[in-house]
Amino acid sequence: MTPERFERLNDVLNKRQPDLTVVLENVFDPHNISAVMRTCDAVGIQDIYILNNKIPPHRKWSEKSSSSAARWLTIHQFTDAGECFAALRKNYKKIYTTHLSSDAVSLHELNLTEPVALVFGNEHSGVSEEIIAMADGNFIIPQVGIIKSLNISVACAVSLYEAFRQKNNAGQYDIAKLQDEKLSALRNTWGLIEDIV
Question: Which own/partner contact pairs does 184-192 have at CB distance under 8 Å and 24+ positions apart?
Fold first, then answer.
């Protein structure tokens, strides 16, 4: 590995945010999943969770929309909601769903500097009642138009860039957060990937 490549990989790894993640519940379209992956990589998310307990597990992601972002992420796939949430609870203090309800708070009211998981539901019915009941609360993205919903990949991008803004203002991108063992493992894995975009 060249010194330049090592420096590039190290710089990206040192900005990874292991205390922020996305959960995709039964999202049908692999293009949407891949677009979310690209945004996750852009804001420094390493681990993402994909729950498919109503649809078959995905076998591959769309290369076109992800720009191969899946190669740089750690993807956890689950077919059981309880198991997925048990894994989330080990690493994240709060789990919030995107759900238009009377108790939903604005995205901008969430404290996204603490360990948090954001859940996005499928394209047709959103987050399921089962998942809403397991989460710590609901949030909405403020909107003033007639249509009160966004494409899942857009909603995720808006939410993650609010998290980026909060975390960046708090100086969280200036501190390397990955533990040594995980940092070394990812550096070794990434070093084997031939191209860096």
Answer: 186/13, 186/16, 186/46, 186/74, 187/9, 187/10, 187/13, 190/9, 190/13, 190/72, 191/1, 191/5, 191/6, 191/9
User: Residue 43 belongs to what H/E stretch?
Assistant: helix 30-43
The per-residue pLDDT for range 115-128, each reduced to its tens digit, is 999 999 988 888 99
Token pair, residue 167, equals 């975390």
Give the CATH number, domain containing residue 165.
3.40.1280.10
Over 60: is that where the pLDDT of 40 sits?
A: yes
Record the pTM. Answer: 0.91
Query: Residue 30 is part of which domain span?
Result: 18-183
